[in-house]
Amino acid sequence: MSRQQPDPSVPRASRQRFVQEFSQCLFDFVIQLLPTTEELAVKEDVRKLLERLIRTIEPDSRLLSFGSTANGFSLRNSDMDLCCLIDSDERLAASDLVTMLGDLLERETKFHVKPLPHARIPIVKLSLDPSPGLPLGIACDIGFENRLALENTRLLYCYAMIDPTRVRTMVLFLKVWCKRRKINSPYKGTLSSYGYVLLVIYFLVHVKNPPVLPNLQQMPPLRPISPGDTHIGSHNTWFFDDIDLLRQRWASANTDSVGQLLIDFFKYFARDFSYNTGVASIRAGFIKKDSKGWQNDLDPVRYKDARERNRLCIEDPFESDFNVARCVTRDGLYTIRGEFMRASRILSTRPERAIVAIAQLCEEREDV
Length: 368
Ligand code: GTP
Ligand code: MG
Known about the structure:
This is PAP/OAS1 substrate-binding domain-containing protein. The protein has helices spanning 12-31, 37-54, 68-71, 94-108, 147-162, 164-180, 193-207, 227-230, 243-249, 258-272, 304-309, 330-349, 354-361, and strands spanning 61-66, 80-86, 112-116, 123-128, 138-144, 231-232, 235-236, 278-281, 285-288, 314-315. The relative contact order is 0.12. It is of the alpha+beta class. A hairpin with a 6-residue loop joins β3 (112-116) and β4.
Protein backbone atom coordinates (compact mmCIF):
# COMPACT_ATOMS: atom_id res chain seq x y z
CA MET A 1 0.00 0.00 0.00
CA SER A 2 1.44 3.37 -0.90
CA ARG A 3 1.84 5.80 1.97
CA GLN A 4 0.35 9.23 1.64
CA GLN A 5 3.31 11.49 2.29
CA PRO A 6 2.83 15.25 2.03
CA ASP A 7 3.62 16.31 -1.49
CA PRO A 8 6.96 18.26 -1.23
CA SER A 9 6.10 20.28 -4.34
CA VAL A 10 3.19 21.87 -2.47
CA PRO A 11 4.51 24.73 -0.38
CA ARG A 12 3.98 24.48 3.37
CA ALA A 13 2.11 27.75 3.40
CA SER A 14 -0.52 26.45 1.02
CA ARG A 15 -0.98 23.32 3.16
CA GLN A 16 -1.39 25.46 6.26
CA ARG A 17 -3.88 27.68 4.49
CA PHE A 18 -5.92 24.62 3.51
CA VAL A 19 -5.96 23.24 7.04
CA GLN A 20 -7.01 26.60 8.44
CA GLU A 21 -9.80 27.01 5.92
CA PHE A 22 -10.85 23.38 6.46
CA SER A 23 -11.16 24.00 10.23
CA GLN A 24 -13.33 27.05 9.68
CA CYS A 25 -15.54 25.16 7.22
CA LEU A 26 -15.94 22.30 9.70
CA PHE A 27 -17.26 24.72 12.37
CA ASP A 28 -19.64 26.34 9.91
CA PHE A 29 -20.79 22.94 8.67
CA VAL A 30 -21.60 21.43 12.07
CA ILE A 31 -23.20 24.58 13.49
CA GLN A 32 -26.01 24.45 10.96
CA LEU A 33 -26.66 20.81 11.89
CA LEU A 34 -27.12 21.41 15.61
CA PRO A 35 -30.63 20.92 17.01
CA THR A 36 -32.73 24.09 17.19
CA THR A 37 -33.80 25.50 20.57
CA GLU A 38 -37.33 24.62 19.59
CA GLU A 39 -36.43 20.99 18.94
CA LEU A 40 -34.70 20.73 22.31
CA ALA A 41 -37.71 22.26 24.05
CA VAL A 42 -40.14 19.86 22.35
CA LYS A 43 -37.96 16.91 23.33
CA GLU A 44 -37.84 18.04 26.95
CA ASP A 45 -41.64 18.37 26.93
CA VAL A 46 -41.91 14.84 25.56
CA ARG A 47 -39.61 13.54 28.29
CA LYS A 48 -41.69 15.22 31.00
CA LEU A 49 -44.96 13.93 29.54
CA LEU A 50 -43.62 10.37 29.40
CA GLU A 51 -42.26 10.66 32.94
CA ARG A 52 -45.68 11.74 34.21
CA LEU A 53 -47.33 8.78 32.50
CA ILE A 54 -44.76 6.26 33.76
CA ARG A 55 -45.32 7.51 37.31
CA THR A 56 -48.92 6.34 37.10
CA ILE A 57 -47.46 2.80 36.94
CA GLU A 58 -44.34 3.28 39.11
CA PRO A 59 -44.73 6.35 41.35
CA ASP A 60 -41.06 6.30 42.45
CA SER A 61 -39.63 6.50 38.97
CA ARG A 62 -37.53 9.04 37.09
CA LEU A 63 -37.09 9.22 33.34
CA LEU A 64 -33.61 10.40 32.32
CA SER A 65 -32.05 11.19 28.95
CA PHE A 66 -28.89 9.45 27.86
CA GLY A 67 -27.08 9.06 24.52
CA SER A 68 -26.68 12.05 22.25
CA THR A 69 -29.46 14.17 23.75
CA ALA A 70 -27.44 14.21 26.97
CA ASN A 71 -23.80 13.80 25.98
CA GLY A 72 -23.23 16.98 23.96
CA PHE A 73 -23.04 15.19 20.60
CA SER A 74 -26.55 15.63 19.33
CA LEU A 75 -27.35 16.49 15.72
CA ARG A 76 -30.61 17.91 14.46
CA ASN A 77 -33.36 15.29 14.63
CA SER A 78 -31.30 12.66 16.45
CA ASP A 79 -33.29 10.05 18.33
CA MET A 80 -34.04 10.26 22.06
CA ASP A 81 -32.63 7.62 24.37
CA LEU A 82 -34.50 7.55 27.67
CA CYS A 83 -33.85 5.45 30.74
CA CYS A 84 -36.34 4.84 33.53
CA LEU A 85 -34.88 4.49 37.02
CA ILE A 86 -37.07 3.21 39.81
CA ASP A 87 -36.08 4.27 43.31
CA SER A 88 -37.86 1.48 45.12
CA ASP A 89 -36.89 -2.05 46.12
CA GLU A 90 -40.14 -3.58 44.98
CA ARG A 91 -40.25 -2.98 41.31
CA LEU A 92 -41.72 -4.90 38.43
CA ALA A 93 -39.50 -6.88 36.07
CA ALA A 94 -38.33 -4.83 33.04
CA SER A 95 -40.24 -7.06 30.60
CA ASP A 96 -43.53 -6.55 32.52
CA LEU A 97 -42.92 -2.82 32.71
CA VAL A 98 -42.33 -2.71 28.97
CA THR A 99 -45.64 -4.45 28.28
CA MET A 100 -47.61 -2.28 30.73
CA LEU A 101 -46.02 0.94 29.57
CA GLY A 102 -46.60 -0.01 25.94
CA ASP A 103 -50.35 -0.49 26.63
CA LEU A 104 -50.56 2.78 28.55
CA LEU A 105 -48.78 4.86 25.90
CA GLU A 106 -50.89 3.32 23.17
CA ARG A 107 -54.06 4.38 25.02
CA GLU A 108 -52.97 7.81 26.23
CA THR A 109 -50.71 9.29 23.53
CA LYS A 110 -50.36 9.79 19.80
CA PHE A 111 -47.08 7.88 19.65
CA HIS A 112 -46.68 4.83 17.48
CA VAL A 113 -45.71 2.28 20.11
CA LYS A 114 -43.68 -0.89 19.77
CA PRO A 115 -42.96 -2.74 23.03
CA LEU A 116 -40.04 -5.21 22.88
CA PRO A 117 -40.37 -7.03 26.24
CA HIS A 118 -38.27 -10.02 25.18
CA ALA A 119 -35.29 -8.19 23.65
CA ARG A 120 -31.84 -8.68 25.31
CA ILE A 121 -32.46 -5.25 26.82
CA PRO A 122 -36.27 -4.83 27.02
CA ILE A 123 -37.35 -1.45 25.63
CA VAL A 124 -40.40 0.40 24.37
CA LYS A 125 -39.87 2.02 20.96
CA LEU A 126 -41.87 5.15 20.22
CA SER A 127 -42.21 7.39 17.23
CA LEU A 128 -44.15 10.53 16.52
CA ASP A 129 -45.20 11.85 13.11
CA PRO A 130 -43.79 15.17 11.89
CA SER A 131 -45.22 18.39 13.34
CA PRO A 132 -44.28 22.09 13.00
CA GLY A 133 -41.92 21.91 16.03
CA LEU A 134 -40.44 18.63 14.80
CA PRO A 135 -40.55 18.64 11.01
CA LEU A 136 -38.99 15.18 10.88
CA GLY A 137 -40.96 13.64 13.73
CA ILE A 138 -39.34 11.97 16.68
CA ALA A 139 -37.93 8.55 17.51
CA CYS A 140 -37.45 7.45 21.07
CA ASP A 141 -36.43 4.32 22.99
CA ILE A 142 -37.29 3.85 26.65
CA GLY A 143 -35.26 1.33 28.63
CA PHE A 144 -35.08 0.49 32.33
CA GLU A 145 -32.35 0.64 34.96
CA ASN A 146 -29.54 1.07 32.45
CA ARG A 147 -27.29 2.85 34.93
CA LEU A 148 -24.10 2.08 33.02
CA ALA A 149 -25.45 3.88 29.95
CA LEU A 150 -26.25 6.92 32.10
CA GLU A 151 -22.67 6.89 33.42
CA ASN A 152 -21.01 6.45 30.03
CA THR A 153 -23.17 9.31 28.76
CA ARG A 154 -21.85 11.48 31.61
CA LEU A 155 -18.28 10.43 30.80
CA LEU A 156 -18.68 11.44 27.14
CA TYR A 157 -20.31 14.69 28.22
CA CYS A 158 -17.29 15.51 30.40
CA TYR A 159 -14.92 14.81 27.51
CA ALA A 160 -17.05 17.02 25.26
CA MET A 161 -16.92 19.85 27.81
CA ILE A 162 -13.15 19.89 28.39
CA ASP A 163 -12.50 21.21 24.89
CA PRO A 164 -15.93 21.68 23.27
CA THR A 165 -14.67 23.45 20.17
CA ARG A 166 -12.35 20.72 19.01
CA VAL A 167 -14.01 17.63 20.51
CA ARG A 168 -17.61 18.43 19.60
CA THR A 169 -16.73 19.63 16.11
CA MET A 170 -14.78 16.45 15.39
CA VAL A 171 -17.40 14.11 16.79
CA LEU A 172 -20.36 15.86 15.17
CA PHE A 173 -18.62 15.92 11.81
CA LEU A 174 -17.79 12.22 12.07
CA LYS A 175 -21.37 11.40 12.99
CA VAL A 176 -22.61 13.12 9.82
CA TRP A 177 -19.84 11.55 7.76
CA CYS A 178 -20.50 7.98 8.93
CA LYS A 179 -24.24 8.33 8.37
CA ARG A 180 -23.80 9.73 4.83
CA ARG A 181 -21.25 7.05 3.99
CA LYS A 182 -23.63 4.39 5.39
CA ILE A 183 -21.24 2.85 7.87
CA ASN A 184 -23.34 3.56 10.99
CA SER A 185 -25.70 0.56 11.24
CA PRO A 186 -24.77 -2.10 13.79
CA TYR A 187 -27.62 -4.31 12.58
CA LYS A 188 -26.06 -4.27 9.08
CA GLY A 189 -22.55 -5.08 10.33
CA THR A 190 -21.08 -1.60 10.78
CA LEU A 191 -20.50 0.58 13.86
CA SER A 192 -22.86 2.45 16.24
CA SER A 193 -22.51 6.19 16.83
CA TYR A 194 -21.34 5.33 20.34
CA GLY A 195 -18.48 3.31 18.80
CA TYR A 196 -17.35 6.21 16.60
CA VAL A 197 -17.42 8.62 19.56
CA LEU A 198 -15.19 6.21 21.52
CA LEU A 199 -12.75 6.06 18.58
CA VAL A 200 -12.45 9.87 18.56
CA ILE A 201 -11.84 10.05 22.31
CA TYR A 202 -9.35 7.19 22.12
CA PHE A 203 -7.49 9.10 19.40
CA LEU A 204 -7.46 12.39 21.35
CA VAL A 205 -6.40 10.79 24.65
CA HIS A 206 -4.03 8.03 23.54
CA VAL A 207 -2.82 8.56 19.97
CA LYS A 208 -2.19 12.29 19.76
CA ASN A 209 1.05 13.34 21.33
CA PRO A 210 0.83 15.62 23.22
CA PRO A 211 -2.69 14.47 24.04
CA VAL A 212 -5.65 16.75 23.38
CA LEU A 213 -7.63 15.27 26.30
CA PRO A 214 -6.60 13.83 29.68
CA ASN A 215 -7.60 10.29 30.65
CA LEU A 216 -10.47 11.02 33.06
CA GLN A 217 -10.67 7.41 34.22
CA GLN A 218 -7.05 7.38 35.36
CA MET A 219 -7.04 10.70 37.23
CA PRO A 220 -7.05 10.20 41.00
CA PRO A 221 -9.99 11.53 43.01
CA LEU A 222 -9.36 14.68 45.05
CA ARG A 223 -10.64 13.10 48.26
CA PRO A 224 -11.04 9.49 49.37
CA ILE A 225 -14.10 7.72 48.03
CA SER A 226 -15.61 4.40 48.99
CA PRO A 227 -15.93 1.49 46.50
CA GLY A 228 -19.72 1.86 46.81
CA ASP A 229 -19.43 5.28 45.16
CA THR A 230 -17.24 4.07 42.34
CA HIS A 231 -18.90 0.82 41.32
CA ILE A 232 -22.11 -0.26 39.62
CA GLY A 233 -22.25 -3.98 40.29
CA SER A 234 -18.75 -5.24 39.52
CA HIS A 235 -17.98 -2.38 37.13
CA ASN A 236 -15.69 0.43 38.18
CA THR A 237 -17.39 3.59 36.94
CA TRP A 238 -15.04 6.09 38.54
CA PHE A 239 -13.91 9.06 36.48
CA PHE A 240 -12.84 12.59 37.26
CA ASP A 241 -15.94 14.67 36.62
CA ASP A 242 -15.15 18.11 38.08
CA ILE A 243 -15.13 19.82 34.72
CA ASP A 244 -14.91 23.38 36.07
CA LEU A 245 -11.73 22.44 37.87
CA LEU A 246 -10.32 20.63 34.86
CA ARG A 247 -10.99 23.55 32.58
CA GLN A 248 -9.11 25.80 35.00
CA ARG A 249 -6.18 23.47 35.66
CA TRP A 250 -5.79 21.24 32.61
CA ALA A 251 -4.44 22.89 29.51
CA SER A 252 -3.48 20.65 26.63
CA ALA A 253 -0.05 21.26 25.13
CA ASN A 254 -1.53 20.20 21.82
CA THR A 255 -2.52 23.21 19.74
CA ASP A 256 -3.53 21.40 16.53
CA SER A 257 -6.55 22.84 14.80
CA VAL A 258 -9.68 20.73 14.45
CA GLY A 259 -8.96 20.36 10.72
CA GLN A 260 -5.50 18.96 11.40
CA LEU A 261 -6.87 16.59 14.04
CA LEU A 262 -9.48 15.25 11.66
CA ILE A 263 -6.90 14.73 8.90
CA ASP A 264 -4.71 12.83 11.37
CA PHE A 265 -7.69 10.82 12.68
CA PHE A 266 -8.57 9.54 9.21
CA LYS A 267 -4.94 8.79 8.47
CA TYR A 268 -4.49 6.86 11.72
CA PHE A 269 -7.54 4.66 11.21
CA ALA A 270 -6.80 4.25 7.50
CA ARG A 271 -3.30 2.88 7.95
CA ASP A 272 -1.84 2.86 11.47
CA PHE A 273 -4.33 1.23 13.83
CA SER A 274 -3.65 -2.48 14.09
CA TYR A 275 -7.12 -3.92 13.50
CA ASN A 276 -5.96 -7.54 13.62
CA THR A 277 -4.27 -7.48 16.99
CA GLY A 278 -5.43 -4.34 18.82
CA VAL A 279 -8.24 -3.11 21.01
CA ALA A 280 -8.99 0.61 21.29
CA SER A 281 -9.67 1.37 24.95
CA ILE A 282 -10.29 4.88 26.21
CA ARG A 283 -9.57 3.59 29.72
CA ALA A 284 -6.25 1.87 28.98
CA GLY A 285 -5.08 2.95 25.50
CA PHE A 286 -4.01 0.40 22.89
CA ILE A 287 -4.27 -3.13 24.25
CA LYS A 288 -3.73 -6.51 22.65
CA LYS A 289 -6.73 -8.60 21.68
CA ASP A 290 -5.18 -11.73 23.14
CA SER A 291 -4.74 -10.11 26.56
CA LYS A 292 -8.54 -9.97 26.69
CA GLY A 293 -9.26 -13.28 24.94
CA TRP A 294 -10.71 -11.33 22.01
CA GLN A 295 -8.61 -12.94 19.25
CA ASN A 296 -10.35 -13.44 15.94
CA ASP A 297 -7.94 -16.01 14.57
CA LEU A 298 -9.21 -18.83 16.77
CA ASP A 299 -10.37 -22.19 15.44
CA PRO A 300 -13.30 -21.20 13.20
CA VAL A 301 -15.34 -24.26 14.14
CA ARG A 302 -15.05 -24.00 17.92
CA TYR A 303 -14.95 -20.21 18.17
CA LYS A 304 -17.14 -19.02 15.30
CA ASP A 305 -18.83 -16.48 17.54
CA ALA A 306 -15.55 -14.99 18.82
CA ARG A 307 -14.16 -14.76 15.28
CA GLU A 308 -17.16 -12.84 14.06
CA ARG A 309 -17.58 -10.66 17.12
CA ASN A 310 -14.01 -9.49 17.43
CA ARG A 311 -13.11 -8.18 13.98
CA LEU A 312 -13.00 -4.64 15.30
CA CYS A 313 -12.44 -4.26 19.04
CA ILE A 314 -13.45 -1.20 21.05
CA GLU A 315 -13.57 -1.70 24.80
CA ASP A 316 -16.53 -0.21 26.63
CA PRO A 317 -15.19 2.33 29.17
CA PHE A 318 -16.91 0.65 32.14
CA GLU A 319 -17.89 -2.84 30.97
CA SER A 320 -14.33 -3.82 30.12
CA ASP A 321 -15.38 -7.31 28.99
CA PHE A 322 -17.75 -5.82 26.45
CA ASN A 323 -16.74 -5.11 22.85
CA VAL A 324 -18.77 -2.11 21.66
CA ALA A 325 -17.90 -3.06 18.04
CA ARG A 326 -19.06 -6.68 18.40
CA CYS A 327 -21.62 -6.22 15.59
CA VAL A 328 -19.00 -5.23 13.03
CA THR A 329 -18.66 -8.06 10.52
CA ARG A 330 -15.74 -8.86 8.25
CA ASP A 331 -17.41 -7.07 5.34
CA GLY A 332 -18.47 -4.22 7.61
CA LEU A 333 -14.90 -3.65 8.75
CA TYR A 334 -13.66 -3.81 5.17
CA THR A 335 -16.14 -1.07 4.24
CA ILE A 336 -15.31 1.07 7.28
CA ARG A 337 -11.56 0.87 6.60
CA GLY A 338 -12.21 1.63 2.95
CA GLU A 339 -14.07 4.76 4.03
CA PHE A 340 -11.24 5.87 6.33
CA MET A 341 -8.88 5.44 3.37
CA ARG A 342 -11.17 7.33 1.00
CA ALA A 343 -11.47 10.23 3.47
CA SER A 344 -7.72 10.30 3.99
CA ARG A 345 -7.16 10.31 0.24
CA ILE A 346 -9.55 13.21 -0.31
CA LEU A 347 -7.82 15.24 2.37
CA SER A 348 -4.32 14.46 1.11
CA THR A 349 -5.19 15.58 -2.43
CA ARG A 350 -6.43 18.83 -0.91
CA PRO A 351 -9.07 20.17 -3.28
CA GLU A 352 -8.81 23.82 -4.26
CA ARG A 353 -11.36 24.83 -1.64
CA ALA A 354 -11.98 23.25 1.76
CA ILE A 355 -15.73 23.36 1.28
CA VAL A 356 -15.30 21.06 -1.71
CA ALA A 357 -13.37 18.61 0.48
CA ILE A 358 -16.26 18.57 2.97
CA ALA A 359 -18.80 18.02 0.21
CA GLN A 360 -16.74 15.13 -1.18
CA LEU A 361 -16.18 13.59 2.24
CA CYS A 362 -19.88 13.63 3.05
CA GLU A 363 -21.20 12.68 -0.36
CA GLU A 364 -24.09 10.25 0.12
CA ARG A 365 -22.85 6.72 -0.62
CA GLU A 366 -25.03 4.66 -2.92
CA ASP A 367 -26.75 1.73 -1.23
CA VAL A 368 -25.00 -1.51 -2.11
P1 GTP B 1 -27.14 9.10 17.72
O1 GTP B 1 -28.32 8.32 18.22
O2 GTP B 1 -26.65 8.63 16.38
O3 GTP B 1 -27.30 10.58 17.81
O4 GTP B 1 -25.91 8.78 18.71
P2 GTP B 1 -25.85 8.45 20.27
O5 GTP B 1 -24.73 9.27 20.86
O6 GTP B 1 -27.18 8.55 20.91
O7 GTP B 1 -25.32 6.98 20.26
P3 GTP B 1 -26.10 5.59 20.22
O8 GTP B 1 -27.51 5.79 19.81
O9 GTP B 1 -25.21 4.65 19.45
O10 GTP B 1 -26.03 5.13 21.74
C1 GTP B 1 -26.78 5.78 22.74
C2 GTP B 1 -26.22 5.46 24.10
O11 GTP B 1 -26.48 4.10 24.37
C3 GTP B 1 -24.72 5.64 24.24
O12 GTP B 1 -24.37 6.96 24.59
C4 GTP B 1 -24.43 4.66 25.32
O13 GTP B 1 -24.71 5.29 26.56
C5 GTP B 1 -25.43 3.56 25.09
N1 GTP B 1 -24.86 2.48 24.27
C6 GTP B 1 -24.99 2.33 22.94
N2 GTP B 1 -24.36 1.23 22.51
C7 GTP B 1 -23.85 0.68 23.61
C8 GTP B 1 -23.10 -0.48 23.83
O14 GTP B 1 -22.76 -1.24 22.92
N3 GTP B 1 -22.72 -0.70 25.13
C9 GTP B 1 -23.10 0.11 26.14
N4 GTP B 1 -22.71 -0.16 27.38
N5 GTP B 1 -23.81 1.22 25.98
C10 GTP B 1 -24.18 1.49 24.72
MG1 MG C 1 -29.02 7.78 20.20
